[in-house]
Amino acid sequence: MTSRTTNKARSPGPLDALAVPDALLRIALVETLTGLSRQTIYRKVQAGDFCRPIKLSSRCTRWRAGDVHAWLVSRKEAAHA
Q: E-strand spans in the chain?
């Protein structure tokens, strides 16, 4: 059996997006990272319990990766308190 090495770059995964704090994330990725539904995310934004998104246009809303990461860390700390 021969061993093959490929030089294909791997596709970035959801957690890779958190490595760039100023990256702008789509709602689908925020759902994946947090495990929350779209409705729950928007409900938490309205209640002040989740980071506010950036409105780029009337139909384009994004979240800063750093804000989402900070929220995830705060949830972890709250769970261990």
A: 24-25, 54-57, 60-64
